[in-house]
Request: fold
Amino acid sequence: MATDDFTRVIESLKVAVAIADAKGAVVFANHAFNELTGGERGALAGVSLASLFSADDRKRIQQNIARVGEGKAASAFVDARLESPTGDERWVQIAFQPSLDMRDKAAGVIAVLHDIGPQRETEQALNLSAARLLALAESSRRAVLIENAAGEIELANEALVLPLALKS
Reply:
């Protein structure tokens, strides 16, 4: 496939894709990638891929870029906070795959971003609900037990366990 054809195919994707060299400098970013990162078309060329993310995540991202870009790992997935020009952070999952040269040797990385903000918000709400349920069960003076779908006991509060322990 010719380079122009490849570019046209990648540009048409709604998935955010960027190609970076082995050091992590962006060589190409499609429209969806620019849109997700808040960059303008062509403005990301030469920019460090890791610099687009929260300072807390940059080192981890750069390490994964290096491992995949040097052929030391076949792929990597990282959840990280993408920084926007407005200062907002957005959670994304980054999938790194090697970008291969003509001899099938790793020469860089292909980074695919997926917005996981809504998923993380749902998980946080679920975890908060679970924590509240557990706190309620633990603090109850009545005997309470919580089973999972397989019928295995997940939680038994002190009001249930204490009388059973005294009987034995």
Observations:
- Residues 117-139 form the longest helix (23 residues).
